[in-house]
Amino acid sequence: MTPIIIALDYPDPKLALSLTKQLDPQHCRLKIGKELFTRSGPPLVEELVKQGFDIFLDLKFHDIPNTVARACEAAAQLGVWMINVHALGGRQMLLAAREAVAKYSPQPLLVAVTLLTSLERNDIYAIGLHGELDENVLRLARLADACGLDGVVCSPWEIALIRKTLGNSFTLVTPGIRPASSATNDQKRIMTPAQAVQLGANYLVIGRPITAAPAPLQALLEIEETIRETRD
Ligand code: C5P
User: Fold this and answer.
1) If pLDDT is split at 50, 70 and 90, which confidence band does 22 have?
2) By the number of CB atoms within 10 A of the CB, which of 31, 91, 160, 168 ranks highest?
3) CATH placement of domain 4-231
4) What is the pTM for the complete model shown?
């Protein structure tokens, strides 16, 4: 199975399904985020799970511990493969999420968002955080690990530091990936798929380089080829 998770960032479930019809669930995973979920809700998730796809439900829960625990249970009951919460929700919230998910079998992977990659240094100062971005990311990744979470979503530029600090069994999921030939869109601190995998990313979240390509399946295969070339 490829490390690629395709971000289904579509405004309409029909568009999402017209892409997934071309994909093999044994071959790649899918991410459903806030836009598509708010439009299509659980039925689309259930349909894709029924088709055999591993789904990363990217709803980044952030609320009081009890509410997040119940939301995680609801997500686990949909049969998704991975869910996420914000590490900034704090220790009690992370522990509540961990405990809620542990009741399910198979257990979805539970990962935390540390700092959103859209935040810059001035933004974190404005919300009262001090120090460098990567110090904050590492502190939050350590907190997620200490609370028993499986890993974090991180920028490709944070992979090496987190991998070195938290070891090989901590799952790293990285967006901000762009093949050398692709438009950067609104992503700023990007890296190629092969570089991110070499640095130790477990999963790459890739949206527009695949979903907006004239031939999405071909784009997926070409990206995989670039990863294989550097592994061989
Ligand atoms: O189209 P693109 O490859 O930029 O899509 C990246 C996906 O990863 C989007 O669904 C976006 O919401 C998500 N994401 C991100 N940066 C984060 C967390 C999630 O780009 N820090």
Assistant:
1) very high
2) 31
3) 3.20.20.70
4) 0.96
